[in-house]
Amino acid sequence: MAHIRQQIREQIVSVLTTNVTLVSNRVYGTRVYSLTEADLPAITVYAGSEASALQTVGLKTSARVVSIEVDAYVRATTNFDNDVDAIAVQIEEAIANDFNVNGLAKSAVLASTEINFSGEAEQPIGSAKLTFDVRYDTAINDVETAR
Fold first, then answer.
1. Domain range for residue 36?
2. What is the pTM of this model?
3. How far apart are CA 52 and CA 55, in angstroms?
4. Fewest CB within a 10 Å sphere: which of 28, 38, 39, 79?
């Protein structure tokens, strides 16, 4: 088995691959992926920071909140803001429809969105970083099983 954080990330990749039609199944479960112009539009999914706290009620469990970062990339055209917003709609709705991340989490809620433009590459790109706070619990001695 794998850490719950990995299972959550993989479930979100699966949900986005199935439901975000504007990227044609180009959803990658890593932040390290070299995107070419032919790969756009695309999405990368990865875990950012995570906070945890010991819960003292009942069994010794760890209440955790992991930031799952979902980055959407498009070719920068005069409509790039509209393009990333359209993809963001599909991302937000897909994750909202799997609110408990297939039973792995208590909740997955959009915490922030950041829209960027980069003209440094051969092909300028626009991007949106959507950060979801995913709350989940584990036993302190079993981080591979959600509670």
1. 4-146
2. 0.93
3. 9
4. 38
